[in-house]
Amino acid sequence: MAESQQGRAARLELELQRDGPTCAWCAREFGSHVVPTTDHLVPRVKGGPSRLENEVAACRRCNRERGHRSPVDWLEECGRRGWTPDAGRVLRVLTSLEEVVAVHGGHRRARPYLDNQLRRLRKHDQVSDFQDVHETGPNG
């Protein structure tokens, strides 16, 4: 079965294998009290597909609180909260979505959003800025 045709539970299991057993946003380890969910980096309302290449595992709290905020905006918010978001994971997943779109086409609505998020992430020196914000504070 192609990845794009797998159900949410199967994709979540693949995300955990790919990225490890922690939330992409707050870095809490998944377990009985921290349940993993599938979080779309390019939200479905922005044309984001339900594919492994557009999803990360996130705890329920982070998925709910992020809502429809962009990945870059949420990375910044996570840093302000003192969490350690995995910006490298976000960049890798968005880059793989960019590659899928380039090869297979489609996702016309998602492309501008995806391009904007990748441009903003790459502008932050390959994501190191996001991981440092909790150590120095948002104003340096």
Protein architecture, described:
This protein has 140 residues and is mainly α. The protein has one domain. A two-stranded antiparallel sheet has the order 1-2. Helix 3 packs parallel to helix 6 and helix 4 runs antiparallel to helix 5. The C terminus is likely disordered.
Query: How much helicity do the residues have?
Result: 40-55%
Poorly predicted regions? 133-140
Largest sheet: 2 strands, antiparallel
Please count the helical segments: 6
* Total domain count: 1
From the helix content, strand content and strand pairing, which structural class follows? Answer: mainly alpha
Query: What proportion strand?
Result: 5-15%
Strands of the widest sheet, in order across it, are 1-2
Could you say which overall geometry the principal axes of the C-alpha atoms support?
Answer: globular
Could you spell the SSE succession in H and E letters?
A: HEEHHHHH
Number of strands: 2
Radius of gyration: 14 Å
Task: Compute the average pLDDT.
Answer: 89
Amino- and carboxy-terminal Cα gap: 48 Å
